[in-house]
């Protein structure tokens, strides 16, 4: 009863624009951490403060150290179940979530469009209420962000965005953990985005400034990020004293960048635009020539799957490329998300310097 009440109160606070979570007590003991995310939804990093995002990364590093390095078994999600709704196919999101949840002792249940067709066979409201009665959380990879918003409004359990047309927050957590591991700190880094103004970029724009990172973005004309998201990102940069630069010149965006980042030019559902997009993105391939204008310690990120026209082999398979550690970190970060939203677990590893 208290757990359900806390979830509802947290969700109400979040919908009213508050980023705090209701204080939670376990067995009469006060919480050990200032940040508590239990019962929250993860729809977009816009709804989370810098300290809350840092907490998820801290927890990711803690689980990775205890389980991978020390070989500990941590059944933190024993007895819990996860509904996994996938309207779009996936390799990393499905594998990281399914294996990660199971590794923590929980039971993931994979649901495709053949099993559950959101808002068609059954209303979103009814789906949310049924899933709330049978699972402890839902991760949904959907076409429309609005579907996630409705699920979160009607559900009494945490709803997690596994990807939507607007955001891909769990990917960005993996990116930041990878950069934290490589550079030792995120503050002061310059991220150079070369590509489409898509959901990955939107999630970076909703979070980079909260870590003190600068962002240089190059997109072809007509493929800029969402204007509303851009406006909010500009507000974040003012609040945190960082820089946000939007342009159409990929070489200029790469200049001085510590991290060169790109993504697919043609997302699922955009196949009919392939010819037009390939033409528009001419000159946006990340190459060693482009990397020459970047910072001396440059690295490269791509969330995968990768096409050669987006980045050449010389960069993609170079020692500067962090794409495969980035892919692995999808598992540790989604595990941390699940643990932080469903339990009172406190990290034992010393908090990293972000």
Automatic annotation (TrEMBL):
Q: In which pathway does it act?
A: Nitrogen metabolism; urea cycle; L-citrulline from L-ornithine and carbamoyl phosphate: step 1/1
Record lineage: Eukaryota, Metazoa, Chordata, Craniata, Vertebrata
Asked if Amino-acid biosynthesis is a keyword of the record, the answer is yes
Q: Name one Pfam family in it.
A: OTCace
Q: What is its main location?
A: mitochondrion
Question: GO: which molecular function terms?
Answer: amino acid binding; ornithine carbamoyltransferase activity
Q: Report which residue ranges the record marks as coiled coil.
A: none
Please give the catalytic activity noted in the UniProt record: carbamoyl phosphate + L-ornithine = L-citrulline + phosphate + H(+)
Gene field: OTC
User: Which positions fall inside the Aspartate/ornithine carbamoyltransferase Asp/Orn-binding domain?
Assistant: 187-340
Q: Which residue intervals define the domain Aspartate/ornithine carbamoyltransferase carbamoyl-P binding in the entry?
A: 40-181
Instruction: Provide the protein name.
Output: Ornithine transcarbamylase, mitochondrial
Self-association and partners: Homotrimer.
């Amino acid at each position: 009863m208290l757990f359900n009440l806390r979830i509802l109160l947290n969700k109400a606070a979040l919908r009213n624009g508050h980023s705090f979570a209701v204080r939670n007590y376990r067995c009469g003991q006060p919480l050990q951490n200032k940040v508590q995310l239990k019962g929250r939804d993860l729809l977009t990093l816009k709804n989370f403060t810098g300290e809350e995002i840092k907490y998820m990364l801290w927890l990711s590093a803690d689980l990775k150290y205890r389980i991978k390095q020390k070989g500990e078994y941590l059944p933190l999600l024993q007895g819990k179940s996860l509904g996994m709704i996938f309207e779009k196919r996936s390799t990393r999101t499905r594998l990281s979530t399914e294996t990660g949840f199971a590794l923590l002792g929980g039971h993931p249940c994979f649901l495709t469009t053949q099993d559950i067709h959101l808002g068609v066979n059954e209303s979103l409201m009814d789906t949310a209420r049924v899933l709330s009665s049978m699972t402890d959380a839902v991760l949904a990879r959907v076409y429309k962000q609005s579907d996630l918003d409705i699920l979160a409004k009607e559900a009494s359990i945490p709803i997690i965005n596994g990807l939507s047309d607007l955001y891909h927050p769990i990917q960005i957590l993996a990116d930041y953990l990878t950069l934290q591991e490589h550079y030792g700190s995120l503050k002061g880094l310059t991220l150079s985005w070369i590509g489409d103004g898509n959901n990955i970029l939107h999630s970076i724009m909703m979070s980079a400034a909260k870590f003190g990172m600068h962002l240089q973005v190059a997109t072809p004309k007509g493929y800029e990020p969402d204007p509303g998201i851009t406006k909010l990102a500009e507000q974040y940069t003012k609040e945190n004293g960082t820089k946000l630069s939007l342009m159409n010149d990929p070489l200029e965006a790469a200049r001085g960048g510590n991290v060169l980042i790109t993504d697919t030019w043609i997302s699922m559902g955009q196949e009919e635009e392939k010819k037009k997009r390939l033409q528009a993105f001419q000159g946006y391939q990340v190459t060693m020539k482009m990397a020459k204008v970047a910072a001396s310690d440059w690295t490269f990120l791509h969330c995968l799957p990768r096409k050669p026209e987006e980045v050449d082999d010389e960069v993609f398979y170079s020692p500067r490329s962090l794409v495969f550690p980035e892919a692995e970190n999808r598992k540790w970060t989604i595990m941390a998300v699940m643990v932080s939203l469903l339990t009172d677990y406190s990290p034992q590893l010393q908090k990293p310097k972000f």
